[in-house]
Amino acid sequence: NTGSLWGGRFASGPSPQLEALSRSTHFDWRLAPYDLQASRAHAGVLHAAGLLSDADRDALVAGLDRLRAKVAAGEVSADPGDEDVHGALERLLLAEVGAELGGRLRAGRSRNDQIATQLRVFLREHARTIAAAVLDLAEVLATQADHHLGAVMPGRTHLQHAQPVLLSHHLLAHAWPLARDVARLRDWDARVAADSPYGSGALAGSSLGLDPEAVAAELGFTGSAANSIDGTAARDFAAEFAFVAAQIGVDVSRMAEEVILWATKEFGFVRLHDSWSTGSSIMPQKKNPDIAELARGKAGRVIGNLTGLMATLKALPLAYNRDLQEDKEPVFDSVDTLEVLLPAFTGMVATLEFDTARMAELAPQGFSLATDVAEWLVREGVPFRVAHEVAGECVRRCEQLGVELDELTDDQLAEISPQLTPGVRSVLTVEGSVASRDARGGTAPARVSEQLAELRVVLADH
Ligand code: ARG
Fold first, then answer.
1. pTM of the entire structure?
2. What b/e string do you get for 243-254 counting C-beta neighbours within 10 Å, with b at 16 or more?
3. Which of 115, 123, 312 to mutate to test the pocket of ligand 1 (most atoms within 8 A of CB)?
4. ipTM summary value
5. What's the Rg (C-alpha) of the chain?
6. Residue bearing the CA closest to ligand 1, atom 12
7. Could you read off the pLDDT of 347-382 as tens digits, one per residue?
């Protein structure tokens, strides 16, 4: 079979069962453009090392360019006899430029350094696409926050009413992790960029006087691997990418869970736009948050990609092992999943309609102003231990009487503690409560406006 890259020492060809197990073209063919780009750079260093004449280099480059056009046009593809994308492209190159010239290109490289390089280039490209999509989502959250400055809602811990907060504050709390995810992708990219493995050969480096730095520069890297074994065997770059992808999945999923809750009759905090929600085949009244549910579901999938990949890596001796062929499908899947999920999720968030009246109505309920009572007492000179007890007593009294904190009479307040003078009423409003939390990072309207401006600077920087 002309697509095989080995065979000289074998008396018989591979069994069909082995070929079926070994074949990876159904998932690695998408690396074909990256393989051809690297081959072009490789022809350059072979020429620089005196291993290809000018004419041979030009003929090879022209052949590779023709092949790239055919691949892009879908005119050529892998054959069942091809083991992987590298073998398939060599077979096609030989058909393009002849066996004599085409056979020269493989000198000084191995599929081990080829695949380690190409996966890096592929992931670097998609990291940029994903970062842009994450930024879009963060910007849409910032826009929603901007439109609702001033609106209040019940802030929760343990899913129980805790303290009132601004809706904008809550929305921005989802945007900051996304900004960090983008920073993670950038940090990751700088690390990967410094480590081009091309020229590492099978594991030990090349004896042919080829310059790995030249190939690295041509492929957009900032440097080449310091250690050829590490260059061909390390996949921490893939695992780290899978982690950042999983973290993005988790960050989106946490938001998704809230959208799902908020869209219930019981919460009634949001209405989903018709174009970004789904119906039921039997219940005509239904409007379902499928995008959010799929986001929550896909998070499990991208976490699985990370854990699966790490399980593959955990006991591999140096250097290359064929197990490493299993590195591609998980990261490809994480890329494909996020690239479809993020635009849909962003569209859903952009078109969410908030019922701010409903949120405002619920904000003071569940005695969410009890902390404000305690802190007011502290400002009056009461030790917090005592203040906490007094405020707790107020809640107990309210529960007995079936009223809210601000409905306690002056007499009832004084009965609980002489220190509870009518002055406490100044903090028994949601507006007073949020306005009082005015240190950096707090939910006071002025601080949230500053926070929004700060986030926008961070997002613009990315
Ligand atoms: N297709 C392999 C992979 O994806 C690269 C080929 C290396 N094969 C080998 N026998 N050294 O990792």
1. 0.95
2. bbbbbbbbbbbe
3. 115
4. 0.96
5. 31
6. 325
7. 999 999 999 999 999 999 999 999 999 999 999 999
